Input
Amino acid sequence: MKADSMIEKAVKTILDKFAESYARCDLKSAMSLIAPDADVVIYGTGAGEKRVGPEEIKTQFERDWAQIEEPALEYKWIFISAAGNVAWAAIDAVFKGNVDGQNLKFQSRITKVLEKRGDRWFIVQGDFSFPDQSQFFD
Output
C-alpha cells in the first residue's frame, strides 16, 4: 500500500538523515537510525557484507569509511509503501566516493524496511547493491 504523505515525509527524513550521517562518517548519528535489535540486518555489496545486529553493522560502517573517502549518496528516485507501523522504501541512487585516489560514481539500489516505535522510525533491514552498470537509470 502506498504510504500516506505523513509516513512518506517521516521515512524520507530518516533516509536523508542516514545519507547525511554516512557522508559525514558519523557512526553515532548513523546508528541512532538503526533499530537496536539483535536481528536488525544490513546487506552490502560484498560477499562478506551480511551484517546482523548493531555491533556487526557498526563494524561494516567503520570498514566502509576506512576504505572510502568522501562517501556520498544522492537519491534519484524513492518509492515508499507502508502498512501499520511498518514502511519500506525502494531507492535508485548514485553512490560517490574516493577510493585509492580515484573519484568513483556508481548507480546503486537501496531498499530499507523501517518500523515506527512510539513516535520514532527505525531502520530494521537494509540492502545496498550495484545494478549492472551498463543499464543506467535516470
Q: What stands out?
A: The longest helix spans residues 5-23.
